[in-house]
Structures are given as C-alpha cells and as structure tokens.
Amino acid sequence: MTESFDNALKRTHNCGQLGSDDVDSQVSLCGWVRSYRDHGGIVFIDLRDREGITQIVFDPSDNTELHDLAGQLRNEWVISVAGKVRPRGRERVNPKLPTGQIEVVAGELTVLNKSDTVPFEPDSTEKVSEDMRLKYRYVDLRRAEMTHNIRLRHSICRAMRSVLDEREFIEIETPFLTKSTPEGARDFLVPSRLQQACFYALPQSPQLFKQILMVSGMDKYYQIVRCFRDEDLRADRQPEFTQLDVEMSFVTEADVMEVADEVLREICRVCDKPFPESVPVLTYTEAMDKYGSDRPDMRFELFLRDASEIVKDCSFKVFAGCLAGGGAVRGICVPGGAKFTRKEIDGFTAFVGDYGAKGLAWCKVESGAFAGGVSKFLEEPVQSALREAFDANDGDILFFVADTPVTVNKALGALRCKLGEELNLFGPDDFAWCWVTQFPLVEWNEEQQRWTSLHHPFTSPAAEKIDMLESDPGSVRSRAYDIVLNGVELGGGSIRIHSTDLQGRIFSLLGISLEEARSRFGFLLEALRFGAPPHGGIALGLDRVVMMMVGATSLRDVIAFPKTQRGFCPLTGAPAKVEDKQLTELDLKIIAPPQK
User: Fold this and answer.
1) Residues 6+ away with beta carbon under 8 Å from 291
2) What is the pTM of this model?
3) Class assignment of domain 300-425?
C-alpha cells in the first residue's frame, strides 16, 4: 500500500482511456470501485471515473498483501491503483467497453476514502424513485447516463459560445438582484437589509437590460444566464432555469433567426443530430390551421381540417348549434383508423375532454360510405363533401370536435400528437424543426377583461396594421418568432419596440397607465429617449435544448441540481425556515396563514 497520498494522486490516464496500444505500459489510475468479483481467488475490480471503466486485477501469486487488501474493498470506495497493462485474452474481451481489450494488473493500491453503503447503486436505478435520486444526487450523477448529460450540456454551451464569439458578439453579465417588473409569471422576491421594507426581484429574464445594452451601443450581446420564475412546475419547467440570451442592433427578424439557426446547427453537429439546410417557416395562422398548435410537431403528416362550411346546414344539432353560436367544427382523418375499437375511441373522447372539449364525434369509412358514430346524422351530400375534403378512404376514421376555435385547436392538436405517438408515425431519432412567425400581438383575457401581450409588452407590432392598434388590436400581428423542435418550443424572440411613442401606445392598449409604466419600467422608457437603435433578439432555453438532444423526458435529467415539481430540493432541503434573528435584521415577521 502506498504511504503517500501525493504520489497516489498522480494519474497517468483516466479510466476510459487505455487500449491495446498501452499494453505493457506502467499506469496509475484513480476512481471509484464500481464492482468487486472474486474468481478463484483472483480479485477483479471495475474502477470507474467520469471517462469510463477499467478492469483491475489483483492476483495473489503476484502480491499476497495487495490481494488481501483488495479483498476489503467495497463498492464506491475511492482508490488509487498503479500497475501494468496487459491484454485480457480473446475469450475475456468485453466488447461493450472501450477499455474491454485490456486490464491492469495491480502493483500498488491506495484507499483514498471509504464509503458507507450507498442508498442505491449508480448502475441500478430502475426501481429508485426520483426523489431518492435527487436527495443523493452526488451518487446519481455517477451514473454514466447522467455524466453524459452534464458533459453534453457543457459541450452545447461551448458550441453556443464558439458561434457567437466568431460573429463578434460580446458576453455581458446582467444583475441578479434587480427591480420587480412582472412579465407574466410571479417574481421571486429578495428582501433588502439596507433598504428597509424594499425588495429586490430575481430576473425572469434579462429582457430590459439587454435592450438597454443595445441603447448603449454594445451592438451584439449574449449571455448564458440563469433566470427565475415563481410558477407552477411540470416536467419541462424549473423555478430557476438557464437560457442563451441574444440581442442585436440594426437587424430584422431574418437576421436574428439566421444567427439562431447557426447556433442550433453547431449544437446539432456536436450532438450528432440532424439540422436542415433551411428551416421551414410557418406563420402562426398556418401552424394553428394545420396542427392546432403554435408549437407544431412536424414529424408526421396528420393535419387538421376545417369542416364548418360543410356541416353548417346539416341536421346534426351539435354541429349546427356550435356554428350558430360562433364556434368551429374541425377534424382529423386517421388513415387505417377504422380498426380502433369502441373502447379506444372512448379513450380518445376522454382525452380531448381534458383539453376542454365537450365530446368527440367520429365516423368510419366503409365501402365508400360513413358508418358508425355520428354518420346517421349526416346526410349523404354532407358525407360525400367530408370524404373529399378530408381525403378519406375505406378503412379510415374521422374525428371531429365542435367548440370555440381555441378549444377545438387545443383538443385536436393534442389528439393529433397522441395519435402520432400511438400509431408510430415517427421514429425516436426523427428531428423536425420549424420557425413560427407572425403571432398575434395581443390576446383577449376573459378573466381580466383586457388585452394582454402574447409574448411581452416590448414586442414590436408588424407595420402593416399598426394603425389598427386601438380600433382592432386582435388583428395586429407581432414581429415575434419561435423556434420549435418536435412540438417543443426551444426558444423565442422578437424585434423590440425602440420608440417611446409606440411603447406608450402598447402600454395603453394593455391597460398600463403612464404612472404604472414609469413605476415598473421607467429605467427602460428613459433609456429609449436617448437614441435607441432598432434591435431584436432571441432566448434559447438551454435546459430544453439539452433535454431534446439527449432524448430525456424531464429537465431534471439534464440539470445537475434541480428542484422537484413542488420547487423543493431534496438534496439541501431548500426552501427552509430561517432564524428569527435573520428576519429581525430584515424587519420581517412571519404571520401564520389562516387555518383551512
């Protein structure tokens, strides 16, 4: 056993590096004991580090004392080993390992640290709960899959920087402790000790600062930045997340989209994923009409079609009544869907109900005519027109939803994706990119009875209908753009408003008074008065990009230390209560909530 830790820590190679060319070399390795096997008195250890695994052999015929020490080793102990590389022999080669053709015959062994029995083995997590994995994240991160995800994240960040650095962008940091300027989600608030009864807010994005950087003449800015939103969570959301933030002066939508394409193309190259020569561009209207979503999954062709004009005079009261009330009737034709059982169809009906639809009408095509479902309520001329409009053939099934246009698109868009997955209409390695442009500038909020920004209040309206901002705001399109992959929005941006007069009109449209605007966004409005150039930008969600590149189903699998869906960190126990002394220093007092 080596007495000096200093010598033991001098590695010559990592555990994924050695191969046939290293046979007869003297090497030194450090890592964790992955497994222990005793075969006829010879001890075999799989030694693991972040680069891979190397098999270590302790033969009592070579060194009895060393062999006895190796017999004490247990999984996840940290050790250093020095020895000679030898070939395993043809019958013992492990083709699954890059180092599978060799092994190291140990000549020295140092136990650097012992380990208690781990709560789960890093290579056997199939039955381990996610909460357990997050609580012992340092063990979970030893898994090859997690190590790969985190390292690929690093490579993606490096690729982002390389593209933007080549284009002479400047990486600039913006503050984490800033002013609360609500932008759609709740802010995380941080009390100030020095300014009593005042609060900082953690930024939801660097939006205002990057616009101010354009006013300052920085021209091209980027930042890989942490952002914070106090919102309800799900698999693809975290209270703190990371985005690539980009802003450029003197640009159009096409200029920003071209830069984003180049960044994403380099990311795909690094990750060995496909990226098209030219990314398809859909308008918001086209996306909603064909896919029922502004995040269209374009891996398969199963399009929504409008049936309103065809069925408006039919005798089916559900359709006629919906249309008379200003609703819409739209549908999907599923090739070969006539094989669906009634139980399966009932399942689809329940599914669209989760998206607000009151029902799912259907009919199958058999012998050139409709059969089953609502077919008996549809006259032959209506049936014939529907078959032609939907390009329906024998063996197909048509699904219809009648409701408000928003509900119809939401329900059928979700059903379309469900059918695509269940019918295997796309493969696990399919990548389909698209840009969605020309979003509505604002949408009507029924609950608040006012117009709200579809993106954010600094998004510039398209010029062609700018004179209708006050008279018909719902018809005004924005200069916004989103990049979508396989139905997942990976990022979005817009050309910004650089005129104080136009920004004031937008605030007025949104019901934000001049006083409120000055209170919330005064520093930006002030900056716009001093020579603001035309500018625009985009933010790409780094966590989502990595998630899509590795094929994960949750952001938590690509973040080193994530929170649960309740915003809790099982590793640290955050959030947690603090001492009364800390509250007193901040002039705060906890008031118990009323009992339910």
Assistant:
1) 297, 298, 303, 304, 413, 416
2) 0.92
3) alpha beta
